[in-house]
Request: fold
Amino acid sequence: MVETSFENVYGELLPELVPVSGGAAQYSPLHPGARDLGEVDAASLDGLAMLAPPGTVERRHAMAQALRALSPRARLTVLALKDKGGSRIARELSELGCLVQETSRSHHRICVTTGPGDVAAIAAALREGAPQYVEALGLWSQPGVFSWNRIDPGSALLLAHLPALSGSGADFGCGIGILARAALGSLKVTRLAMLDIDRRAVEMARRNIADDRVRFVWADARADSALTGLDFVVMNPPFHEGGAENRVLGQGFIQRAAAVLRRGGTCWLTANRHLPYEAVLKALFASVNLIAESGGYKVYQARK
Ligand SMILES: C[S@@+](CC[C@H](N)C(=O)[O-])C[C@H]1O[C@@H](n2cnc3c(N)ncnc32)[C@H](O)[C@@H]1O
Reply:
């Protein structure tokens, strides 16, 4: 039997595991420009294949969004590596009221259902994973966004050492706006571009920061070409992609910062101590200073 290719996908799916049509619509919030599954009319999609996100609440929310968006009897295929949430998908889909067929291939669990799911269970998962105001932070956030309900210790260390900045700058991988808010505390900051590859982060940052000096950008920070001649860049670069450690990603952030800063401009960076960023910084910047080291994190100031 030939399986029909999916026209709607969420995430980067291995073609050997799920057949995807060449022009398939993307719905993952981690793909700039992708459609928002939450904005799709209910019961309107004729099928969807999803690489399940690793976080439990985020995953249930995404699967509930899919079930809401699918038309009656449309096929939903959800898969993930076993140790990245895959082993829990079948149970979670059945808790959402679905009958599930599960198979295993290439270390992935692959679950297929035609819904329709239980309306109350779907509504509860949608509520649980929705944007919410986190009292402890005094900020809007959403499960699935980086460190969604607490300040990352690396970011906290940078906040403790960040001087009053001035001029125009950028926050690479801005998340919900933790570093940007501190940078904007200085009235000498004239403009700030806040970039993140996660649409949800950019939306939450928009809710958290009402400031005419800011431009919000849903994009890969390494690819945005609008920036040049900046006075500063702040960042806590990501070092995970698709659930696996990726050191090249942070190095790409550093290269991009060096490219967009003016001569004498500064990059403020925080990172886990074990990450190999110092050599890249030294190769691209005129001076590199270790400003703080504590709790497994390092803060650098690099001047171009
Ligand atoms: C370590 S978090 C820091 C978040 C925030 N600056 C903070 O301090 O809480 C890294 C952020 O980079 C984002 N990110 C990952 N890859 C990216 C890319 N290629 N371009 C832009 N942002 C990216 C992630 O979504 C995440 O929000």
